[in-house]
Specification:
Elements lengths: L12 H17 L14 H11 L26
């Protein structure tokens, strides 16, 4: 079964507004980094794609984390 995505983003207005506010703050005060996290399949990539479409001049860097065994290790890419 192939699942497509809806052309309408539902229920993310508040999160898109938070991203827009963070971008406005970054343009005023510097270069903040935001960490978007959540379970697989909840729409993180879609949320960022939608945001990127509203801010084509913004720089968005994305990455993923490896599953290391059965234990979740949040923030592993930032530890060290």
């Amino acid at each position: 079964m192939c699942r497509g995505s809806s052309p309408v983003l539902v229920g993310r207005t508040g999160q898109l507004a938070e991203l827009a506010d963070a971008l406005a703050e970054a343009r005023r005060d510097g270069h903040p980094a935001l960490l978007i996290g959540g379970e697989a399949g909840v729409g993180k990539s879609r949320l960022l794609a939608e945001f990127a479409a509203t801010a084509p001049d913004a720089r968005l860097l994305t990455a993923g984390c490896l599953q290391l065994g059965g234990d979740e290790l949040p923030f592993t890419p930032f530890a060290g």
